[in-house]
């Protein structure tokens, strides 16, 4: 017969008590370099065009745009720095948990039996700093995919091997 008994919520394990591992500090450099490259190239382009332009209205616009982009890049850097401290992960025998966010923290826990596919990605800059991204794709379209960016290469490969073993044992 079907039963759907109520669970005592206070007896459930708490995510806050989970030992979360921080992302490697070098990933913060990746974030800052990316901000610098994106905003810096736009600012540099505006400054170069402004230098050779005779149009006063464009020169005025370019000046305001450069100031605005500088402020936005500083604000973005501060947000990334504050959010970096919230990037943490934990691996347990039955699931993996990843927490991240800037102003709002998002925590995703993905049971191993829902993992469909694994991938390790390394951008040029991440390779130079010895970092990798472990991408974990889940079953369904619920948005439960996890991409843990900023893992040291050996840690990402170890976790990849562990999760691959778990998935293969399931089959």
Automatic annotation (TrEMBL):
Residues 87-158 form the YdbS-like PH domain. The chain crosses the membrane at residues 27-49, 61-82. Keywords: Membrane, Transmembrane, Transmembrane helix. This is YdbS-like PH domain-containing protein. It comes from Winogradskyella aurantia.
